[in-house]
Each structure stands twice: as structure tokens, then as C-alpha cells.
């Protein structure tokens, strides 16, 4: 599959995952502090991202524990980056939506690179 097609599919998967992340984040902010809300929402978005990217974006249908382990490792790293960037932006701006999208931008770039050339290669 061409890189352009993979990027297009990754974008659709990403929008779905980010939508899950954003809605969950805002709902959890009513009952939890921002860092915990962000971590939980990121994990739910991660589940959506794994499912769509594995089966549709990168068309991998074989059951693979190595892929799951690699994906979880990658997302553990990007979870830390996501929450860290979210906290930094909130510290300086207090604009929740700005923090969310800046954090998402950082983790998105890391996730595509990691999935394309490590997890689903």
C-alpha cells in the first residue's frame, strides 16, 4: 500500500481515536483532575487507534502478541509525552482545548512513526 494511502487511513483512524479521547477527557474533567482524565481518555483513544490501524490502516489481520506488546510499549511512551505536554501547556495557558490538541499533535507524530516502522512493519 502506498504511503499516501496509509497516511490518509491513519488520519481517519486518528480522528476517530482523538474524538474518543476528547469526549472522554471532557466528561472525566467533571469528576477527576486533568492529568488523570487525560491518561484515561488517552488509553481509550489508544484502544480505538489500535483496532482501526491494525486491521484497516496497515491491513494486518494475523493475531500477533508481538504487535500488541510493541503497540502497548509505543503508546506507553506516547502517553507520557501526551500527559506531559498537556500539563505544560495548561500550566502556561490554562486553555484546555489548546493543551489537548498540542499534546495530541506531539503524540500523533510519534505514533505514526512508531506504528509504520516498528509495530506494523
TrEMBL record:
GO terms for cellular component: plasma membrane. It comes from the Bacteria. It is a multi-pass membrane protein. Pfam families: GtrA_DPMS_TM. It is found in: Membrane. One of its GO terms (biological process) is polysaccharide biosynthetic process. The keyword Metal-binding does not apply. Its main location: membrane. The chain crosses the membrane at residues 12-32, 38-56, 68-89, 95-113. Signal peptide: none annotated. Keywords: Membrane, Transmembrane, Transmembrane helix. Belongs to the GtrA family. This is Arabinogalactan biosynthesis recruiting protein. The lineage of its organism: Bacteria, Pseudomonadati, Campylobacterota, Epsilonproteobacteria, Campylobacterales.
Amino acid at each position: 500500500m502506498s504511503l499516501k494511502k496509509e497516511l490518509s487511513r491513519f488520519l481517519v483512524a486518528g480522528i476517530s481515536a482523538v474524538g474518543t479521547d476528547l469526549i472522554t477527557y471532557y466528561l472525566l474533567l467533571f469528576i477527576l483532575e486533568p492529568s488523570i482524565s487525560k491518561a484515561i481518555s488517552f488509553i481509550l483513544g489508544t484502544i480505538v487507534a489500535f483496532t482501526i490501524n491494525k486491521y484497516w490502516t496497515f491491513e494486518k489481520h494475523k493475531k500477533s502478541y508481538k504487535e500488541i506488546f510493541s503497540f502497548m510499549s509505543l503508546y506507553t511512551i506516547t502517553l507520557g509525552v501526551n500527559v506531559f505536554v498537556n500539563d505544560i501547556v495548561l500550566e502556561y495557558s490554562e486553555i484546555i482545548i489548546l493543551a489537548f490538541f498540542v499534546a495530541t499533535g506531539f503524540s500523533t507524530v510519534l505514533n505514526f512513526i512508531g506504528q509504520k516502522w516498528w509495530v506494523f512493519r
